[in-house]
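In keeping with the milestone schedule agreed at the kick-off meeting, the structural modelling team has produced records for the first pair of proteins. Each record is given below as a sequence line and a structure-token line. The laboratory manager (R.T.) confirmed that both were archived under the project's standard naming scheme.
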Amino acid sequence: MKIALLATDGFEESELTEPKKALEAAGAEVDVLSDHPGEIQGYRHHEPGQRVKVDHTWDEIHIEEYSGLVLPGGSRNAAKAREFPRVRQIIWEMERARKPIAAICHGPWELISAEVVTGRKMTSAPKIQDDVRRAGGQWEDAEVVVDQNLVTSRGPEDLPAFNREMIALLEKEPVAQER
């Protein structure tokens, strides 16, 4: 299983590094994809954190190579990433193919911009719950929400549940029903 982890400068450190570790421990190959090569800067809330190596830019990849998608949070990261047409395209194509998508904290902003939220049960950072609702999502205040091929969580405190449900979803057979 090969997973695409989309992020750019400003990602919340634990929301990228912890899912990546959990996926690799479960036997997945994880590619960090970004808007630029080299490294991206993480944050621990408002303080700079570690830098993470970028494996490929999102313009270099083919969606069909990946079994699933992870969108870490960090308001800077999600606000910047959602502006890129290629990010919206990747999310939309993954959703259309019914591949697992896992988004945490502010990551659902990217789902909103890709227009894949309508009618979906989900959670997010509480600060963006109104955005989720306005986009047609059914927001819940829960540590993790699974709706078909979508796993969402509120933030770093929910990482154990997020990682557990993300891996469980990736290990299932692909969802066949159309949206």
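The second protein of the pair:
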Amino acid sequence: MAMMTLFAVSNNEGWPDTMYAYADATGVESGPKPGAGIANCFFFVGFVFIGSFFFLNLFTGVLFMNFEKAQRDEKDAMHLDGEEIRWVDMMKMICQEKPDIVRIPKDRIRRWCFDFVRDDGRFANFIMACIILNIFTMAAIFEGMSEEYSSVLEKINYFFTASFAIECFMKLIAHGGNYFNSAWNKFDFFVVTSSFIDLIMANMSANSLKVIRIGP
């Protein structure tokens, strides 16, 4: 049981619950008492730092060192000096790059959307500000908050969702099918779609969600 406990803690999944349980432990044949074994928490914190973070970083460091060594061996086999190696690396980067072809639409409405989303940075700065403020909004949720406070956060969430949806919709109009050529746009479209699904499910009644609860 001790090994299973340490294995569960080393996965970093729900280890604080295990730590809190041991913090209330009093003995083998006695019931728990809040804060009776608070010193046990130091063991779990130390185990997570050493068993998880330290060995994970050590494992990553060994992989990185071996990767660098393989690169050095490969370059040494080419009998090139420093400047020539940098030139070869630069040529590899140039060959791997793909040109970003921007097709300016001729339709008046699409052209207006294209110019708006590709403005002098004001639109992109506004969206970035919305993303940062949305992170603060999500961090403002806490257990036991009042209904008025929750209602304000919900309205703010509606505003940010609408802003991201307008951005996605305008870019779709401006770029058409080329919108999905960018990996960032694909991620943006996925986030907006997920946000609408979340809003729909949040406003559905409990009876409507019975089918979803049956699933995995």
